[in-house]
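Today's session is about reading a structure prediction critically. Students often jump straight to the picture, but the first step is always the sequence itself: look for stretches that repeat, for charged clusters, for runs of hydrophobic residues. Only then move on to the predicted structure, which in these notes is written as discrete structure tokens rather than atom positions. Here is the chain we will use throughout the hour.
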Amino acid sequence: MKAILRSGLIALAIMALAVPANAEPFWDGLAAYNRHDYATALRLWRPLAERGVAEAQYNLGVMYRDGEGVPENFAEAEKLFRLSAEQGDDFAQNSLGEMHRKGRSVPQDYAEAAMWYRLAAAQDNAAAQGNLGFMFEYGQGVRQDYSEAMKWYLKAAEQGEARAQNNLGVMHERGRGFPQNYAEAETRFRMAAAQGYARAQDNLGLMYKLGRGVQQDYAEAVKWFRLAAKQGDAQAKVNIGLMYEKGLGVPQDKAEAKQWFWKAAEQGDAFARKRLGLI
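Below is the predicted structure for this chain, in token form.
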């Protein structure tokens, strides 16, 4: 059994697999974590991790990575993920790959990241399959190969991984690895958007704005942009600003447009800062 929790836009996998049957502290720790009682979860999981229980090691790693009940500590998280990953835990392998890809407490190393993603992906870990697809799409740590990227994205998408669905949509929209196909791109974006994935919601909004794969509908575009912006997506905020600036799907309102550009600019969006200087 695997219990999946979500914090913001990041899926946190708290493992409950292959734990010894008499390990009641593990299950009590899981219950404590689920009710955000991190102090109790730490107290119950730490002894298990010290005894070499891979799932407890992984869980503690998540808590150190995300600063839950302890100060954020990437070095401690990496150490715990490695201990768990070396025992074959696929979630830890994926997380260790992330540490190497982002250079958190270890030198950034795409090849090492791809190696850990591959190990986890071979165990049908959907997040790792999506991550491995990304590495192949952009040639990070592996030779760029759109066919391989599509293969891994499809495996992840078949398990309902929203980011992989969105990335497949992007590949279809841009004609990467196969002929450009807006209808298929729209389908993939819609599937991911229905799961609440902000990037896909923004991409679906663009499809409606431009009439790609769907009938052009500015009001529908604004609807999807708003859903993505509500989750903090800076690009979606820019797109809402553009709709207000030009009066597409909403009444033209340059003051309102400026407010949306400000929101995106505060997140570091360069295009939004440029629009503020022009509006």
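Discussion point for the tutorial: Confidence is low (pLDDT under 50) at residues 1-12.
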